[in-house]
Amino acid sequence: SAVISQKPSRDICQRGTSLTIQCQVDSQVTMMFWYRQQPGQSLTLIATANQGSEATYESGFVIDKFPISRPNLTFSTLTVSNMSPEDSSIYLCSVSSGLAYEQYFGPGTRLTVT
Amino acid sequence: DAKTTQPTSMDCAEGRAANLPCNHSTISGNEYVYWYRQIHSQGPQYIIHGLKNNETNEMASLIITEDRKSSTLILPHATLRDTAVYYCIVRVTDNAGNNRKLIWGLGTSLAVNP
């Protein structure tokens, strides 16, 4: 399985600012995903990060609010823009490769917006 | 999209087998059943997946009923470190016919007691 790291591990941000979260994988992977997990809730898929093209967003998530980059097969970033307290959550990066499509997750980034 | 139903919580004595049930009565013939777990403050961890046949790996066994409407994840000798939220997920095929999205429910909170 791939080893995935995320930076930062946690942050406290002010309302109206933006935060960029990085996801680094130790090997090339086919697919990378970004999830949000709000307190006490399950995971919600934000988008699929596509290498060399625009990310594919799920219903309820838009590029202006959550711009995503994926410049190569081992790295992706998620930006949470113009933050409000409702954006306080854990943001998780996951990767998948091969035919089986099981996903492997990073440790997450715990974001608190004040 | 096929949905899953799991008990909210379960208890298990350390050293005993933990049997976690999941109902997925609307599953389609080409949809896989995946199991993940999430230990507190960590990213989810892939456990096992299956289509029709029972599966076993170093972590667990997956028993799928013949009609595929339910499954059971078995941890043969539960330890305190197995305390986590366990998610049963049916892999969804998107409109392009590519299996990519996982729909996450609230899972089963398993407490392994000494």
For the termini of chain B, the CA-CA separation is 39 Å
- How many helices of chain A? 0
Number of helices of chain B: 0
**Cα-based radius of gyration of chain A, to the nearest Å:** 13 Å
- Which word captures the global form of chain A? globular
Q: Strand share of the residues of chain B?
A: over 45%
How large, in whole angstroms, is the Cα Rg of chain B? 14 Å
Distance between the termini of chain A: 36 Å
Q: What integer is the average pLDDT of chain B?
A: 90
Q: Based on helices, strands and strand pairing, what is the structural class of chain A?
A: mainly beta
Report the count of strand segments of chain A: 11
Largest interface comes to: A-B, 22 and 18 residues
Helix residue percentage of chain B = under 10%
Using the alpha-carbon principal axes, give the shape of chain B: globular
Can you write the helix and strand succession of chain B as a string? EEEEEEEEEE
Poorly predicted runs of chain B: none
Tell me the helix content of chain A. Answer: under 10%
- The class by helix and strand makeup of chain B works out as mainly beta
Written overview of the protein:
- The complex is a heterodimer of chains A (114) and B (114).
- Chain A has no helices and eleven strands.
- Helix content of chain A is 0%, strand content 51%.
- Chain A has strands at 4-7, 10-13, 19-25, 31-37, 43-49, 56-57, 68-72, 75-80, 89-96, 103-105, 109-113.
- Chain A is globular.
- In chain A, strand 9 (89-96) and strand 10 (103-105) form a beta hairpin.
- Chain A is mainly beta and 114 residues long.
- Chain B is mainly beta and 114 residues long.
- Chain B is 0% helix and 48% strand.
- Chain B is built from no helices and ten strands.
- Chain B has strands at residues 9-13, 18-23, 33-38, 45-50, 55-56, 61-64, 70-75, 84-93, 99-102, 108-113.
- In chain B, strand 8 and strand 9 form a beta hairpin.
- At the A-B interface, strand 5, strand 9 and strand 10 of A face strand 4 and strand 9 of B.
